[in-house]
Amino acid sequence: MGGGKKITAAKKDKSANTKDSKKGKKDKGESGPRKAENVVLVKEQQAMKIIQNSKVITVQDLARQTGIKTSAANAFLRESVNKGTVKRVGGYSGHHLYQIVSS
Fold first, then answer.
1. Phi, psi of 63 (to 5 degrees)
2. How far apart are alpha carbons 55 and 52 in whole angstroms?
3. Integer Cα distance of 66 and 3 in angstroms
4. Cα 81 from chain centroid?
5. Euclidean distance between CA atoms 62 and 100, whole angstroms
6. Single pTM value for the model
7. Inter-residue contact 79 to 41 (CB < 8 Å)
8. pLDDT one-digit tens code per residue, 9-55
9. Separation in Å, CA 67 to CA 50, 61, 72, 80
10. Are 96 and 59 a contacting pair, CB within 8 Å?
11. Dihedral angle, C-alpha 60, 65, 71, 74, nearest 10 °
12. Residue 20 and residue 64: Cα distance in Å, rounded?
């Protein structure tokens, strides 16, 4: 029935301008200076006291009780597992349970 839509002269000019401007742009990785990364340090004594006082703890529990981000709490617990002060005792799919290693 109908044919293809005709492109107006104004649309042709816009599409020509966008093609030219895209050629001169840099890749995403080459943009200006990097933004400063926010680093939150966990107070180790405070975190270990919380872990000792509970049977098991999750990343979310530790983050809530210490007032830090879950990513920082997760990094702390993973580091503690590597050191051998804390062990992973259960959980699944990123929601692991951690427990202090009894001496």
1. -65, -45
2. 7
3. 66
4. 20
5. 13
6. 0.58
7. no
8. 888 777 776 655 555 555 555 666 665 554 556 678 888 899 999 99
9. 12, 10, 10, 18
10. yes
11. -70
12. 51
Is 44-100 a domain of CATH 3.30.450.40? Answer: no
User: What's the pLDDT tens digit per position in 46-66?
Assistant: 888 999 999 999 999 999 999
Tell me how far apart the alpha carbons of residues 54 and 48 are, in angstroms, rounded to a whole number.
10
Domain ranges of the chain: 44-100
Beta carbons of 74 and 59 less than 8 angstroms apart: yes
The letter for the amino acid at 51 is I
Q: How far apart are CA 77 and CA 68, in angstroms?
A: 13
Q: Tell me how far apart the alpha carbons of residues 59 and 84 are, in angstroms, rounded to a whole number.
A: 17
